[in-house]
Amino acid sequence: MTTLSANDAHLKDLLKQAMLELLEERRDLFSEIFAEAIEEAGLVNAIREGQSTYTVSKKEVLKALGE
């Protein structure tokens, strides 16, 4: 485990304070970032699920969509 010096601890505290201020002042930006991260996680899950299922043709997909 790494030991923090006084300067490292001070820098860590400053970074935490800056992050909290950003979160408070730019809540909208953080909301967008978190929403995108959740969407990306959903896409990853969908891709993984799709990789474990069988493949269908374009014709079958269009038929299921009624086109």
Topology (SSEs and partners):
Elements (H helix, E strand, L loop, with lengths): L5 H20 L1 H25 L6 H7 L3
Describe this entry's structure for a reader.
The protein has 67 residues and is mostly helical. It has one domain (6-64). It has helices at residues 6-25, 27-51, 58-64. The N and C termini lie far apart (61 Å). The mean pLDDT is 89.
Which key phrases capture this entry?
3 helices, single chain, mainly alpha
Our measurement of the CA-to-CA distance between the termini, rounded to an integer number of angstroms, reads 61 Å
Number of domains: 1
* Count of beta strands: 0
Order of helices and strands: HHH
- How much of the sequence lies in strands comes to under 5%
Gyration radius, to the nearest Å? 23 Å
Indicate the low-confidence ranges by residue numbers.
none
Provide a quick synopsis of the model:
The protein has 67 residues and is mainly alpha-helical.
